[in-house]
Amino acid sequence: MWIVIIINIKAQDKPIPLHANAFYGVELVGSGFRFFFLPLIGLVVTGINTIISYYIFRFDQLLPSIINFCSAVLQGLLFIATLNIVFLTHT
Predict the structure, then answer these.
(1) Count of CB atoms within 10 A of residue 1's CB?
(2) 6-10, 40-44, 80-84: range with lowest mean pLDDT
(3) Spatial CA neighbour of 49 closest among 30, 36, 66
(4) Cβ 75 vs Cβ 68: under 8 Å
(5) What angle do CA 21, 4, 78 make, to 5 degrees?
(6) pLDDT tens for residues 20-58?
(7) Cross-strand pairs, 25
(8) What stretches of 1-91 show up as alpha helix (H) in DSSP?
(9) What's the pTM?
């Protein structure tokens, strides 16, 4: 995600759309720096889930797998959101 953002969105104070809705169009506009919060949130959540999974693995082997799967799904959804915003800024 970081590479897609760095290549396509120049981090500057120029306003870009950060959220769009199918009914109303662009709902949230902000600086390009705020766009880096998407991968940062994914990185923090994945790190926390990895630490939690590491400690839970001693007691249960299934729950850490579910936690890691949820982290992967979250990363996929954040990547789709990133691509959506990149395509929205280039049209």
Answers:
(1) 17
(2) 6-10
(3) 66
(4) no
(5) 45
(6) 777 777 777 777 777 778 888 888 999 999 999 999 988
(7) 21
(8) 2-8, 37-56, 62-89
(9) 0.73
